[in-house]
Design a protein that fits this description.
Pfam families: DUF6615 (PF20320). It is a single chain. Helix 1 runs antiparallel to helix 2 and helix 3 packs across helix 5. This protein is of the alpha/beta class. The chain is built from 9 helices and 13 strands. The strands form 3 sheets. Strands 1, 2, 3, 6, 7, 8, 9, 11 and 12 form a 9-stranded mixed sheet that branches. The chain has one domain.
């Protein structure tokens, strides 16, 4: 049984991978990104209460995207993450078997109908104070395949990547036309991956139920600086280049005036445009801390 967010960060990728493997048993269709993100949010709902609040928009959205907000009440510091979901393509493309090193994320070059822009550009260009990330859903059979067994980063049912890196790779693919670059393949994008635990369980332990904005930021900044270039030994020059290109959204901001309204731990809200999960640390005994109705203990908050 999952007891902590660290436990969830370890177990949920395996569950997502199994779900994707079992879609081959479906008579029609496949699991969409929205479905897998719903599983992710539902798993986090087990922790809903004074330290974790889930808000749904009044109108349902599509695309499988999700906002995570880490807020430290006492200091007013917060870091905001915007996750765009993409799933790995199936084992078969029609009647054709897709080899393990050709498995890819076909929808990475999705075009937004309302704007005509590539979705990857919209994600980066409209993220504002949010740090844009991709959340990739992968089959358990792929993550267990010997092809991905030896090298790091580890491939699992859930991997994350900075949208800035994915944007660069997709733009390179577009700019290379008519040449074909296989930049949507898992085998190509793997060096950019990191793990779910890096945001849900940064560090060796959590002081409370949820991580602080600074703990998440420190882990993400370390991950951002990790060299990713292929074909040569990692060196200090790439690390310095990534340090100099570090986005401001990798660091917590501070606005003590912002406050989550009182209310239930799971709610609908006109204030959010997509599913939003707020992780509340540094709770105080004054009005700065919202009163959250814990579904497990209705009289507490």
């Amino acid at each position: 049984m999952t007891q902590t967010l660290c436990d969830l960060a370890s177990s949920l990728p395996g569950l997502i991978g199994i779900i994707l493997d079992r879609e081959s048993k479906l008579k029609r269709g496949r699991f969409r990104e929205e479905t897998l993100t719903d599983v992710f949010v539902a798993a986090l709902a087990a922790f809903a209460g004074p330290e974790l609040v889930i808000q749904y928009p009044h109108e349902a959205t599509t695309g499988g995207d999700l906002d995570l907000e880490f807020w430290h009440v006492e200091t007013g510091r917060r870091i905001l993450l915007r996750l765009q979901a993409k799933r790995l393509n199936a084992l078969h493309n029609g009647d054709k078997l897709v080899s393990i090193h050709h498995r890819s994320y076909r929808e990475l070059l999705h075009v937004v109908n309302s704007t005509g822009e590539y979705q990857f550009k919209t994600l980066v260009d409209t993220s504002g104070p949010y740090l844009p990330l991709y959340i990739f859903y992968n089959h358990a059979s792929v993550s267990a395949d010997p092809y991905y067994a030896l090298d790091a980063p580890q491939v699992s049912g859930i991997n994350l990547a900075f949208a800035f890196d994915i944007e660069r790779e997709m733009q390179a693919k577009i700019d290379a036309k008519p040449s074909v670059l296989h930049h949507k393949r898992l085998s190509h994008l793997r060096p950019f991956f990191f793990e779910l635990k890096d945001i849900l369980c940064p560090g060796s332990h959590l002081a409370g139920l949820v991580p602080t904005p600074d703990a998440v930021s420190d882990k993400l900044r370390d991950e951002w600086r990790r060299p990713r270039l292929r074909g040569r030994p990692s060196d200090d020059s790439e690390r310095m280049l990534r340090y100099l290109s570090e986005a401001p959204s990798l660091r917590p901001s501070r606005d003590p005036r912002q406050r989550l309204p009182d209310g239930p731990a799971i709610r609908t809200s006109a204030a959010v445009e997509r599913d939003t999960i707020t992780f509340i640390s540094g709770r105080t005994e004054d009005e700065r801390t919202p009163r959250i109705i814990d579904p497990r203990h209705p009289r507490r908050g």
